[in-house]
Amino acid sequence: IAQQEGDFASFLLGVFISNLLLYTSFYIIMKLRHGERICRQAMTYILLSWLCWAPAMYFFLNKSTTWQLLPAESRRYNQSCRLFHFYDNHDIWHFLSALALFFSFMILLTIDDDLAEKPRDKIPVF
Hints:
The chain is an all-alpha fold. The chain has 4 helices and no strands. It is 59% helix and 0% strand.
């Protein structure tokens, strides 16, 4: 991710994805260190997001498009279709990353559901 060949948009996307994954991981670790629990629904979303992020990052790092060339020149990056003989690696990246982002944001939405009945002054702030 750190060595993108002049493609600033992909580099920035990599930074945003890394930021999301690192801060979500940090929050989960701090939550567990302070004795809080993670409910079953949030654990399901954590598992599903990692199951989507791993292959999504594979397709993100194995480029099949480039924005630096004209469309006619970038055709040499085209690869054969892999999914249903219709979708190529770039399309699969879009599908998997969309699912991974959805599950990642569902983690953030549900991770503190165990604190709904806890008084505010008893919730550790980190």
